[in-house]
Design goal:
alpha/beta; TIM Barrel; six-stranded parallel beta sheet; three-stranded parallel beta sheet; globular; binds 3-phosphoglyceric acid
């Protein structure tokens, strides 16, 4: 199963909200926006002191079929902590050999990030073909993804970064894009 089954998450969640949560009020507000948009998942970034508490709180809520991911995982030392949280998926904005090795071992679906041809080649060597394309808006956006499709037809991308309510459908229409991530729906 590739990347511990990340395709199940990506194929059933076309839009992945990327949430940076500062406190409980923030969490409730952002969850309301997500549910209002009929979205059934969230990626909580490890960019605030409250992130881990936010994940714990969501896990106590009655949200059937709601998938909880953790994002901005950038160091192998974070993996053990993330594993203990029992999240549904893990997102990294980049990739290193050690990080990807640890992610494979967790058994948790995961998606590492790339933004260049060489990084995609590296990801494929490490048996990753579902990749976050980040930051999508600064790395060539739709045109880059079309070019990558010519070179790497087996790679599926989840573009994230600078995507808006006016552009996300254009990304989703590409054959090599399974889902898109971002924070536009939380603003
Ligand atoms: C991420 O980590 O995926 C991004 O911060 C989300 O990008 P956005 O806020 O520009 O949508």
């Amino acid at each position: 199963m590739k990347q511990n089954g990340i395709n199940d998450i990506l194929s059933t969640n076309k839009v992945i909200p990327v949430a940076t949560i500062h406190n409980y009020e923030d969490l409730v507000l952002q969850l309301e926006k997500i549910q209002h948009a009929s979205i059934s998942c969230i990626e909580i970034t490890l960019r605030t002191d409250y992130a881990l508490t936010a994940i714990e709180k969501i896990k106590t809520m009655d949200l059937p079929n709601f998938k909880i991911g953790v994002g901005t995982v950038i160091r192998p030392e974070q993996i053990e902590m993330v594993h203990a949280l029992d999240v549904d998926f893990i997102v990294s904005p980049g990739l290193t050999e050690k990080l990807v090795g640890e992610l494979h071992k967790t058994g948790i679906p995961f998606i590492p990030g790339v933004s260049t041809v060489s990084e995609i080649m590296q990801a494929l060597e490490w048996h990753c073909s579902f990749l976050k394309f980040f930051p999508a808006h600064l790395s060539g956006g739709i045109e880059a993804l079309k070019a990558y499709g010519q070179l790497f037809p087996s790679v599926t991308f989840c573009p994230t970064g600078g995507i808006t309510s006016s552009t996300y459908n254009d990304f989703l229409s590409l054959y090599n894009v399974s889902s898109v991530g971002g924070s536009w729906m939380l603003k």
